[in-house]
Amino acid sequence: MREVAGYIPDIGEEDFQKKILIFKRNDIEIEVEIPLLTIEQINKVIDKVKKANTEILKSFSVVEILNIIDKAIDRLLDRTTSYRQKAEQQLPIITGYDEEVIRLGLTSYLKKFRKHELQRFVLEDLGNPLLLDDFQPRIKGGFSKAVGPNLITHIWSGNVPALPLWSFISALLAKSGNIGKVSSAEPLFAGWFARLLVEIEPKLADCFAVIWWKGGDKERETCILEQSDVVVGYGSNGTLESLRSRTPITSRFLAYGHKISFGVISHTSLDSQKSFGTVRQAALDVIRYDQQGCYSPHIIYVQHGGNVSPREFARYMAHELDNLEKRYPRRSLSMEESAALASWRQKEEMSVFFDSQKEVLGNTTHDWTVVYEEEDINFTPSCLNRVIKVIAFEKIEDLIPTIEPHRAFLQTIGIAGSPKELFHWAESLGRIGVTRITALGSMTSPEAGWHHDGRFNLLDLINMVDIESSAEVYSEKFAPYVD
Amino acid sequence: MSKQQEVIKNIVCFMQNEFSSDDAFNEHALQLFSYQYQNNLPYQTFCFQKRKTPRVVKSWRDIPAVPINAFKEVTLSSTKTEEAEAVFMTSGTTKGIRGKHYHPTLDVFDQSMIFNFKKRFMKETEKIRMGILFPTEIEMPNSSLAHYLALGLREFGTEDSHYLITESGVNMGRLLKELDHAEKTGKPYALLGASFSFVHMFDELKRMGKTFILPKGSKILDTGGYKNQSKELSLDEFYELLSTFLGVDRSEGINMYGMTELSTQFYDYGNLSVPSVKSGPHWIRTRVINPLTGEEVPKGERGVLVHCDLANFNSVTTILTEDLGVEVDDGFLLLGRVQGTEAKGCSLAVDEFLKAAKGVSN
Question: Which of A5, A435, B72, B219 could form a disulfide with A187 if both were Cys (CB 3.0 to 4.6 A apart)?
């Protein structure tokens, strides 16, 4: 099977160097063909996108853009359309995740970009969506308008399917030209989305490009970075550091680094009736995308005092992961990942010698692993791929000192607890760097309008242009109709 | 005779018999397994967890392989560690904890080294003038490599052999004299040491614009990779530079693969093509496994190496490495260490976390 990735506006050339990426799962192979542009071609694309942005995209009203995106999402949600079918068929092969995990994940994810959700998205950041179209009066006097940059460059990374949509759609709403660089681990979805948009509104054909180069290609990266107004970078801190150092000081660099998330479970959710559901939600958060998302849990903290003890919780969790493995098997791991996982587990098994409270649960083929800790409450990341640590605690205050040093890496917490606990814990954890608190079981699907890593989706992209009231008053003097 | 003496006697005897059978290897491995199981409590617990006791293990392939990390966490010794003649430690610096390998006596280690070194490196040569690109045993008393090289020098080096490393790095003055001398006299010369020291040497020679053509019969032995001590060269570049700067044919550039956790080393037959085929003597055997299942992978496929070294009479015979390799005819290809994996998605990888955590604690 061969699939062409990326999307390039018409730059009067069709002759591109091509790079072939090969993906294989269960004996089905896909060759992904992706154009590799020369510096000259990249420059042409940049000029084209910037021009189309000024002349075309900026003339659309935000409602018109919302409608176009809504139509595109509509088609992607409809399982009878060719794009959706392609996604369901090819993404499992590209990313290795189970078909059902992808199908369910896609639907729950795409739903967040329907029109009514996007309206919330815009409202959330701007209050008045019309700010994106026109100067709007302000309460203090004067007028303001939100103006999107000419060119936003997105450096996407990772293999969580369709992840690029967040920043791509935000940038479209900001009426900005876009160049997106897809990752080799999931090079397809962003290009499909771009093509779909153009099918729905051909006028947008030159307003964006989805391309690829090998991460770290200094020449190509520098060429694009130097010409971008805003750069949205995803990846490890090392990668981001390198990108930021080459972004002009006059441009904005938005860094979305790798993060750690975790679950916190109160004893109130662990009575004989509710505990089963709690365990299941926690296990689901672990198996979705095999914990590869920044919002996926590395650790589940479980409070003492419930009918089900933290130790029992860990054992139930093991059981649940074993069940889920049958229905949603884990992606097959590379030899490097396998070795890392095995070595992680061996190390844990080894430490059981010194810590009689500890338990390491897993099957002989390492499809999942649960480590139960009581003594050592240190905050250490999991090696992922369905490896989870369950740590017992008495009260949240005991945990804070171990988590706080890692403030820069914290993101989501999935909570199972009473309303009182929810707000109490949110207060303590928010103070040490956590930016998203969600229900256990919803960790991997953030709401529309969420503050990704605590930041704004649209506000961070745009510039506000103010007309101060003095200008308005002063201008009256020069009106042709002045008395 | 104590139990330990008996064990040593048996194994040395086995090492001396080059034409021993598969069955004999198996028998010795199982005897050692039983000895270590009985005398090494942490290992016993480890085996028990895996439901592998001497009663059920019938083949050396079934002996539970101890991950090399375990040498950091627990004491793996069948005798009292206070009485050990030598303790070799790994250079691993994570959390400052180093793996420890206890040798109650170095007799077995030394015999293993000498037999094998003679056969694979010295070959027909009895003695050779040596230059060692590594610190001495006195400078690094817990380094198995320092001991290995010292032994090589003592047993096979001529009297005018030298150490060529000082506190400030490669002693270039001395090295140039040695190379000059070899070139002038036409007497074969052997240079042995850490791979990264060779890289430093190449850099210096390049800076000075010097190249040599060492006499026929000269030999090179490098080991250990780069360990962040120098820039990383590909194997091909490394052996190419070796022949460019020293005029030693790539087939005379031998790479030794050894580990602190073992008492036996592996060698290749030169590095004309890389990666070269590595193999060891008859008292060590290697399996290539899938780390998730512990099963052997089909021949020709990549996996993680497990070594069963009968010269490890005191610690554990069978260790699980973090090295990737492929089984081939006559040995295995070493594909390097399993690198910490980069994050696949956007969740933080353990390696990045550790790096950052180091920053916090410094």
Answer: A5
Give the A window 235-254 contacts with B, CB below 8 Å: 235-238
pLDDT at A325: 95
- Read off the amino acid at residue A329: P
Q: How far is A21 from chain B (nearest CA, A)?
A: 16
Give CA–CA dist A262/A286, Å, rounded.
10
Domain ranges within chain A, ordered by starting residue: 2-258+457-467, 260-439
Residues B172 and B164: their CA atoms lie apart, in Å, by: 8
Question: What is the topology classification, in CATH, of domain A260-439?
Answer: Aldehyde Dehydrogenase; Chain A, domain 2 (3.40.309)
pLDDT higher than threshold 60 for residue B360: no
pLDDT of B160 over the 50 cut: yes
Q: How far apart are CA A50 and CA A102, in angstroms?
A: 35
pLDDT over 60 (residue A447): yes
* Residues 6 or more apart in contact with residue A82 via CB below 8 angstroms: none
Rounded to the nearest 10 degrees, what angle do helices A189-200 and A165-173 cross at? 30
Return phi, psi of residue B7, to 5°.
-60, -45
Q: Does A296 contact B352 at a Cβ distance shorter than 8 Å? A: no
Cβ neighbours of B47 in A, within 8 Å: none
Which chain A residues in 47-106 lie under 8 Å from chain B, judged by CB atoms? Answer: none
Provide, as residue numbers in chain B, all residues whose Cβ is less than 8 Å from the Cβ of A408: 356
* DSSP state letter for B218: -
Judge whether residue A135 has pLDDT over 70.
yes
Residue B361 has what pLDDT?
43
Task: Supply the pLDDT for residue B358.
Answer: 63
Minimum distance, in Å, between the CA of residue A7 and any CA atom of chain B: 23
CATH H superfamily, domain A2-258+457-467? Aldehyde Dehydrogenase; Chain A, domain 1 (3.40.605.10)
In chain B, positions 70-109, which contact chain A (CB-CB < 8 Å)? 70, 73-74
pLDDT for B324-350, tens place per residue?
999 999 999 998 877 666 667 788 877
Q: Taking CB atoms and an 8 Å limit, are A381 and B70 in contact across chains?
A: no
Residue B94: predicted pLDDT: 53
Question: Cβ of B349 and A258 within 8 Å?
Answer: yes
Å from A347 to nearest chain B CA? 7
The structure tokens listed for A124 are: 């959330």
| Whether B51 contacts chain A with CB within 8 A | no
First-to-last alpha carbon distance for chain B, in angstroms, is 52
Report ipTM for this prediction.
0.78
Do the Cβ atoms of B27 and B21 come closer than 8 Å?
no
Report chain B's mean pLDDT, rounded to a whole number. Answer: 91
- The verdict on A291 touching B (C-beta cutoff 8 Å) is yes
Lay out the sheet containing A208-211: strands in order across: A208-211, A177-181, A151-155, A230-235, A252-257
The secondary structure of residue B80, as a DSSP letter, is: -
Per-residue pLDDT at A52 exceeds 50: yes
Closest residue in A to B65 (Cα–Cα): A346
Quick check: A211 pLDDT over 50?
yes
Across A260-276, average pLDDT: 96
Domain at B108-281, CATH class: alpha beta
SS3 label, residue B330: coil
pLDDT in tens, B26-76: 999 999 999 999 999 989 988 988 889 999 999 999 999 998 888 988 899
Q: Count other Cβ atoms within 10 Å, centred on residue B158.
A: 14
pLDDT of A176 strictly over 90: yes
Task: Judge contact between B295 and B340, C-beta under 8 A.
Answer: no
